[in-house]
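Exam prep: given the inputs below (a chain plus arginine), describe the expected output before reading on.
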Amino acid sequence: MSALQEIRNRFAPVLAGLTDDVESSLSMIRSSQDPKFGDFQANCAMPLAKKSGVAPRDLAQQMVDQVQLDDLCETVEVAGPGFINLKLRTDWLEQQARRIVADDRLGVQQVEPKKIVIDYSSPNVAKPMHVGHLRSSVIGNCLERVLRFLGHDVISDNHIGDWGTQFGMIIYGYGNFVDESTYAKEPVAELARLYRLVNQLSDYHDACSKQPALEEQIRSYGDRITGSELMAEFENSETEKKKKKKALKKLRSEQDGLRETLSSMQSKLETIDSDSELKKLATAHADIARLARLETAKLHSGDEGNRALWDEFLPECLKALDHVYEKLGVSFDKTLGESFYQPMLADVVANLKESGLATDSDGAVCVFAEDNAAPFIVQKSDGAFTYATTDLATIRYRVEEFGTQVMLYVVDTRQSEHFKLLMDTAKRWGYGDVEIQHVNFGTVLGDDRRPFKTRSGDTVGLESLLDEAVARAYKIVCDNDDAKPNGPELDESERRSVGEAVGIGGIKYADLHHNRESDYVFNWDKMLAKTGDTAAYIQYANARINGIFRKGDIDLESLRSDAESLRLEHASERGLFQQILSFEDALIVVEREMRPNMLTQFLFDTANRLSSFYQDCPVLKEEDDAVRTSRLLLCDLTSRTLTQGLELLGIDAPKQM
Ligand code: ARG
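Solution:
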């Protein structure tokens, strides 16, 4: 157990005599910002005193008199308006350190297990994975690892989109444009080409039909802008003038936005118009979008030919996904996609109607939310079931089949509306006991702060992105190894595997260390840097410890059997161990807030503490044998913590780099 949890446990019975809401008082016990106030600070006396009308310092003193902390704390003092400052006893810390040396959970206690399904990655298959799939895969995988490590019973489920409109597109593409010999050799690449081609041709016709209206809209903005300019010119009052200018600025930026849309439309048109082959195809397939939708409808209504094609394409699509997951080091307990739930959908709708939750509305079947927001459509007027119907069937299945208590959806913020309606409907449908959470996240941006695209405007393929990360990292690893004072240490295969760890680790860490709800800018140099809040910095910190063990020819097993030697005499030793002991606190916050960045922050702080420790405390050079052993033990604990923490992020920790 961490020191913080231990202290909170000691305060709990005291607080129980003072308030009904013990939890919120306990949450006001935190580690101190400034060591001069001790190691921890309890700030709960002030709000409690306010409620009961006692003087805060008196209440704080009363708490100090009651709380049992003799074995744990050296000093417990009331300070200022009623803070309680606590300083841990060094012998207690040392005792914890020795205990953790022998604990393969590094002091992290198992929680009361819950049955958790975590739905993540979940791409729409039949089109290649792109950078947008990175966040769900990486954040979801990290949460899966952390929740499982904490002791929960976790099922990861890749809810792939394997029944959607993209299949109509490749079926149409296959029927009209397939290159048989490429398909025989590289089916996935050919299907991806077909998907892109059908998409491109549909977009072309869409752009053709929308372009005139868009141009007209831009013109009318132009007129409004000229008008407003004149008005602003003749305005006498300064405040009015300012207001008009502000409005003008808004109009201009809206017009810029439209211009950008137009220019991306024009570039799509140009690509096709300038290519006689494509142009011919576009002309011959003017109705392509509708026909592709028709193929999807045929598949859904049980058409045998389309079903046979789907049966043929799907395994290939899954193979392509697995390829990317292998590179990412991600795997799932279940892959139950949309198609799996198709046979259950009619019953879901019937059941929703029976229970009075769903009603007919203009030929469609809808669930209306209590707050009268947009309806949740579970069957469209043409009879088709929707994304919503599938998600409802999925909830029922997960509860009945797995006894799920908590369901997490690691999905883009842009789907918030869907999940709000889903949760609302599920609750009224009888799943109010299940904790359902949309673990939402922001967008990966390019340098221009717009969604990350390639130069030609395509989405960035995930596989090539991962390959580039590894290639760049490999180069950095080689340069670094070549520059070592005593010559290179790594052979070629080691360089390759370290390159992979740094490259893939760099991409994952860069994603995880941002607050998940924020957008972030993708930046190669920052993510692969050896210093700063990066995977490489933490990996190097860990490798350096292992370098010390190699150099000193340390046998870890016999070192660990000497745990009694562990002392925390220097402030930097003490600081480093206190940090290690707070591993559990970091993981608890990751779970509570579903925020992997709490773990990256912990690892970054640990690596920083390690540097201060090195600065202040020689390890191999230390002459006193006992002190040397103690420091080696502390290094070992740090390396184990860094390695375990990285593993929970899904990142490898090479011993030598
Ligand atoms: N396939 C969906 C998409 O790419 C994400 C699915 C998320 N999971 C779910 N159960 N809705 O947008």
